[in-house]
Design brief:
The protein has about 280 residues and is mostly beta strands. The protein contains 2 helices and 19 strands.
Amino acid sequence: MSEMKQNIYIILSCVILSSCDLIQSMVEPSKQYRDVSLQEKNELASLFTNAYGCDWTNNTKWCTSYPVSEWYGISTNSEGYVTAINLSGNNLRGGDVRIDLSVFKYLTSFSIDDNPIESLEINGNDYLKRVMLQSCAKNRLTLTNLKKVEIVDCDSLEYIIGNVDTLIMKDCYFKKNEETNIHMELELVRFEDCALSRLRVDSPNLYFIRSIAFDSWETHTTKHLEIVDSNCPHISEYNFEPETEIVLKNAKIRRYDGDREYERTITANILGSEWATLW
């Protein structure tokens, strides 16, 4: 008889628990997470394929029937939209890795630092305020529709192209004896503690260089240039517009006159039209 009572108790407990779950789902619908759209899922699946997902350090539940919210490194909201992608240090690799973040309408966080990706193309969205690429051995970067990109401690960079409002580079080493091209329409570009061989930057409006060493430089800036604690190559008035604001702080500048080379360490605030007066 006691065994029958125990069975009845178990059955009643299950019924009660099921009822509680049903009531909770009715009372708190916001906690019932929907899976993401097919478009978002396909973009993630494409990243998995292009970046050799089968070899990732952690690819738990990726490209399975499990909800995307359970895929490693992916966060979603209650409405079924991806809000964060965090795959840092996860052995993503490949010679042509692309991801279109504009597919993810509510994505606010994206991180793929410390991965051996050779060529990376990122297209941004309106919600993503900042992308940081750190400790990556990339040769080529294509960055479009991004508000702010920080590239930190990256080796063997060859060229960067795209459309970015703000580009900040720190502790980056570009391919030796090869021209590094940065083809962008920028509001701000800043280099800090970088080593470059030859640098070409197209049309930056606001431009900072700090603690940098490079051999040759081709750029045309129209608004503001600041060079601080840097060993710079030959720079002439052809690099500036006459109204360009130039700030030099402990900047070592070289100038060639025929076969002779002159070098000066300069601290000054001038306009582009006054550059020749430094000599």
